[in-house]
Amino acid sequence: MLIARVASAQELGPQIQKIAEGIYVYVGKDFNSNCGIVVTQEGVVLIDSGHNPTDSQAIAAAVKKLTPLPIRYLIDTEPHPDHTTGHFVFAPPAIIIAHQGATQSMLDRERDAPGRIEKLAGTSPEMRAALQGYRFVAPQIEYRDKMTLNVGERSFQLFYQKNVHSEADSAVWLAKERVLFSASGIVVNQINILRPFVTIPDILAAAKMMKALKPEHVIPGHGIPGTAKIFDDTEKYYALLLERVGKLIKEGKSLEAIKKEVKMPEYDKWASQERMPSNIEAAYKAVKGN
Ligand SMILES: [Zn+2]
């Protein structure tokens, strides 16, 4: 007979936070990506695979302490390397699921950054050791718009978020448990990176949709797990940014002038201030309606 013995918080290490019964988060240090660990009666489901392979190895070790059951699925909230380089640690046997476009995004990055893995291995002896056996592993399953994954007693609802961060952003909702993995379109106490295809109206639409789920726990792709307050914080930040940029557009200022002029002192303490110009540019496009 299999006797389940759940490891204590100390045994799991300081980066593992318990969210609910059987639901844990490996919280990335200094805004590194988070990884969700969801234990079911029929195996484990991971949401993302850790920022770096050193994280992925720590996650694999933590899962072994939580349950003798295998990791059956790995859901990617996005295809960027800080969520997917560690795929090889889990698959096989884990089956990787992502939104349509994830594989192409991963292949494009792989092509554009030759030597990426060797460079990463050079960052520390621990990283080199964690990269032992590295292979490029793309998702086996790509869904479109919505998907339900039932594993054991749990149900995972995956839904696509358009133009919020990457080419394939997925939120993962556990309705019964009221736990939401909200992906990287909305971050916590940090200015987000807004790529040229990302739009503020799409981010706000995603925030509204996720808030309407009424989650009890919200685990962003990056940042400390919290509650639906992170959506309120995001709405307030973009509302103020749109207002300030809009005012200067009305005064006839150019984008370049606006980039120099707009200040957001209320958010001075948020991390990644160097991303502000990309935020101002996105606000400019949103106000102009393109
Ligand atoms: Zn990313």
Secondary-structure map:
Elements: H1 9-12, E1 16-20, E2 23-26, E3 35-40, E4 43-47, H2 53-66, E5 71-75, H3 81-84, H4 87-90, E6 95-99, H5 102-112, H6 116-121, H7 125-130, E7 141-143, E8 146-151, E9 154-161, E10 169-174, E11 179-183, H8 200-212, E12 217-220, H9 229-250, H10 255-261, H11 276-288
Parallel strand pairs: 4-5, 5-6, 6-7, 11-12
Antiparallel strand pairs: 1-2, 2-3, 3-4, 8-9, 9-10, 10-11
Helix pairs in contact: 8-9, 9-11
Bound molecules: zinc ion (ZN).
What structural category characterises the helix and strand content? alpha/beta
Report the mean per-residue pLDDT as an integer: 95
Low-confidence stretches: none
Shape: globular
- Give the amount of beta strand, in percent: 15-25%
Termini distance? 62 Å
Instruction: Tell me the total number of β-strands.
Output: 12
Oligomeric assembly:
single chain
What's the tally of helices?
11
Ligand inventory:
zinc ion
Supply Rg: 20 Å
Task: Please describe the biggest sheet, giving its number of strands, its sense, and whether it closes into a barrel.
Answer: 7 strands, mixed
Give the H and E element order: HEEEEHEHHEHHHEEEEEHEHHH
Proportion of helical residues: 25-40%
If strands are numbered along the chain, what order do they take across the biggest sheet? 1-2-3-4-5-6-7
